[in-house]
């Protein structure tokens, strides 16, 4: 008989708390459960404790992998899920013994994809976490009804307050963010709530959440800057699923609250400015709208520290100013490139005209040389015939002078006629060759 519920535990160096967690899991009033434990490369005694409990209870399945982070460990359990419903717990907390039974009854009665319930935080005194959305209606289906859940789950993005239908998670590929990073469960919760057709609300504290100041999640350092990329991934998911317009205001509210509370509140001043720069480096298409929302939030009493709120708003605004200047520089660069192309085109035309002028100058020089040659030739002819007639019309010494002069010009004329005859013969031979 297949199990009704699969409980998944990602385990990493939680030896002091692991036995209490496993005792609360194996002693559930619902016995038809599958328990998947993913040892995420623990270096303490956690693997030995897992093997000890697995030897005593056949419902426990232990898988080992190198340390890859909590999200990766939870994703590694997906191929092994056999229960109709799936529940993700943390190994340093513990469960109420009737958690599975109550969630099962609620999910079956309401035919829901997800059951959301309350928890008790221990810091170290137990405090019941209130619902930030009205409990009624108990079944949420429309975006309007689910907005209240989103406003609540941003404060508790962890998966341990949600009880999921397994085939819903698998068919919609709802996974955790990979890698060693905080907020690896935020995208999982948001996507699941957005895609769920029916969500049931269970007003019962069924989970005990241990707040450890030494835990990875509650530290305050530069690794938590990844909240910016995480919120960008959430926005992208809403765009891809078509729910962005329905939840835009909620996304902005939670995005601002995340920046305001999760990071800025616990960071020293030097890290706050680095976070400011980190916002600059991770732009989105909705930054203008988000900055407008931040300005309006200055009037809300839920943000008493206006300097911190202005800090977040300036982080977005400064990036928008940088983005505007960058776009303006790109536009100017495009104009300069266009003008450079025009100048290059004009230079090519000028070079072409210079070439034409040079060719014309060469042609003029050639014609001038031919003209000079013709002028010299006809000048010789003129002197020759002039001397010839003058030698016939004069007597004595002048006649002798013109005869000598005519003889000299006669030699030049004969040379000119020889050159002309040679050129004609060359033309005739070329014509004869072409004809043949």
Describe this entry's structure for a reader:
- By secondary structure, the protein is α/β, with parallel strands linked by helices.
- It has a domain of 219 residues: Spore Coat Polysaccharide Biosynthesis Protein SpsA, Chain A (Alpha-Beta Complex), CATH 3.90.550.10.
- It contains 13 helices and ten strands.
- Strand 2, helix 2 and strand 3 form a beta-alpha-beta unit.
- It is rod-shaped and about 155 Å long.
- About 3% of the residues have low confidence.
Given the helix and strand composition, which structural class is it? Answer: alpha/beta
Rough shape? rod-shaped
Please give the CATH class of the domain at 1-219: Alpha Beta
Rg over alpha carbons = 47 Å
Q: Report the mean per-residue pLDDT as an integer.
A: 77
- Low-pLDDT regions: 131-137, 317-322
Put simply, the count of helices is 13
Biggest β-sheet strands, sense, barrel: 10 strands, mixed
CATH topology of the domain at 1-219: Spore Coat Polysaccharide Biosynthesis Protein SpsA, Chain A
Provide the helix percentage. 55-70%
CATH architecture label name of the domain at 1-219: Alpha-Beta Complex
Q: What distinguishing features does this structure have?
A:
alpha/beta; 13 helices; 58% helix; Spore Coat Polysaccharide Biosynthesis Protein SpsA, Chain A; 436 residues; ten-stranded mixed β-sheet
Detail the topology: elements first, then pairings:
Layout (H helix, E strand, L loop, with lengths): L4 E7 L3 H12 L6 E8 L5 H11 L3 E6 L4 H7 L8 E4 L5 E2 L3 H12 L3 E9 L3 E3 L10 E2 L2 H11 L8 E4 H6 L14 H10 L3 E12 L16 H15 L2 H20 L5 H12 L6 H11 L8 H88 L2 H40 L1
Parallel strand pairs: 1-2, 1-4, 2-3, 6-10
Antiparallel strand pairs: 4-9, 5-10, 6-7, 6-9, 8-10
